[in-house]
Fold this sequence. Notes:
The protein is of the alpha+beta class. It has helices at 2-8, 29-37, 39-44, 54-66, 117-133, 147-155, and strands at residues 12-15, 19-23, 73-79, 85-95, 100-107, 137-143, 159-166, 169-177. The protein has one domain (2-177): Gcn5-related N-acetyltransferase (GNAT) (Aminopeptidase).
Amino acid sequence: MLNKAVRSQDVFLAEGDLVRLRDKRIDDAENDFSWKSDPELAAFDGAMPYQGTIKNFRDNVSRDLRERTIYRKTFSVEDNESGSHIGNVMYYGYDPLRREAEIGITIGNKKFWGRGYGREIMSLMLTVMQSRLALSKVYLHTLSWNVRAQGAFKAAGFQKVGEVVRGGQTYHRMEVKLPRSADSLD
């Protein structure tokens, strides 16, 4: 019953045919912990799986929810049909002077892989970022071997502009230029 009461208070930032984006909640921490601890998902981030306890992870999430900033923001992704939390999308490194930010995505629930969710999530997030931040460019880094993600990013308008090597791994840098909005700071 409590879960329904909390859910009825959700404000969705954007909604597409497949998913909707909403602010993070502390009850997302259990899924996030599971995904960060999964070796396969960590590999897609070029990272090691999370090794800490659920309590420490939850404490970190709680702190992040209290200490929100315009320079970094994470949203939860829900499947429209089931209402399930299936992943996260975030921006970080927001530079208001250069009018750019980096974007990242995790579809933690693997049954939603390869079905068009990534493309829609990226498109929705670009719309949210442009309306809130008046950006001119959004960029990302994806491992060179992650062809499925690159396809989703291309479908959302990103183009490869170079390569970056970090920690011995090669990443494709992809960017999308955004049209000037009426809310532009200039």
